[in-house]
Amino acid sequence: MLVRSLLPSSMGHRTLSSAPALWASIPCPRSELRLDLVLASGQSFRWREQSPAHWSGVLADQVWTLTQTEEQLYCTVYRGNKGQVGKPTQEELQAIRSYFQLDVSLAQLYYHWGSVDPHFQEVAQKFQGVRLLRQDPIECLFSFICSSNNNITRITGMVERLCQAFGPRLVQLDDITYHGFPSLQALAELS
């Protein structure tokens, strides 16, 4: 259920324990997704661990905080100036499912890859829950361009500065302002 927000333009990052009514869960065992391994892996540069095991970032022009237990992925969304507070809708949760490709069974893939590659079978035990992200192609392309001869920290800063300079302002949480990735049109108008 969505309600009108009485919050100021700046709010704080949520944790699962601080506002449980604003979180939705998706059944997802850690063997299928490990936020700590995937979001810090260098595939995407928009996620930060804001409090222990709570990752905040921008996905589909919305700011999210994610956390997980052994069997559930928990999500909350900040709708910024849309003026609505409430747990994520099914449509919003679909963006999370798609981004993490949760319709793909890692257990089946790991089993198959392990059956044809003994080295993978050995290494896979240490890296359960690592999966590829289905990112916005434009953001992925620009992140790749920034990656040439750089490290994750530097790429993260470059992508963040690009978003701050040319992307739409989404919401401010604590002292952090989140921006969407700029559109191709916005970037083309710069030349």
Features:
191 residues, alpha+beta, 5-stranded antiparallel β-sheet, 3-stranded mixed β-sheet, 7 helices, 32% helix
Can you characterise this structure?
- With 191 residues, the protein is an alpha+beta fold.
- It is built from seven helices and ten strands.
- It has helices at 35-38, 90-99, 106-116, 118-124, 137-146, 152-166, 184-188; strands at 3-4, 10-11, 24-27, 47-51, 54-59, 62-68, 72-78, 84-85, 169-173, 176-179.
- It has a five-stranded antiparallel β-sheet with strand order 3-7-6-5-4.
- Strand 5 (54-59) and strand 6 form a beta hairpin.
Give the structure's gist in a few sentences.
Helix content is about 30%, strand content about 25%. The protein has helices at about 35-40, 90-100, 105-115, 120-125, 135-145, 150-165, 185-190; strands spanning about 5, 10, 25, 45-50, 55-60, 60-70, 70-80, 85, 170-175, 175-180. It is globular.
Main pleated sheet:
5 strands, antiparallel
- What is the average per-residue confidence, as pLDDT, rounded to a whole number? 90
- What general outline do the C-alpha atoms trace? globular
Contiguous low-pLDDT stretches (5 residues minimum) are 1-9
* Oligomeric composition of the shown chains: single chain
What is the number of strand segments?
A: 10
Q: Helix count? A: 7
Helix content: 25-40%
Strand-and-helix sequence, N→C? EEEHEEEEEHHHHHEEH
> Strand pairing plus helix content: what structural class?
alpha+beta
Cα-atom radius of gyration: 18 Å
Determine the N-to-C terminus distance: 44 Å
- Percentage of β-strand residues: 15-25%
Looking across the biggest beta sheet, what order are the strands in? 3-7-6-5-4
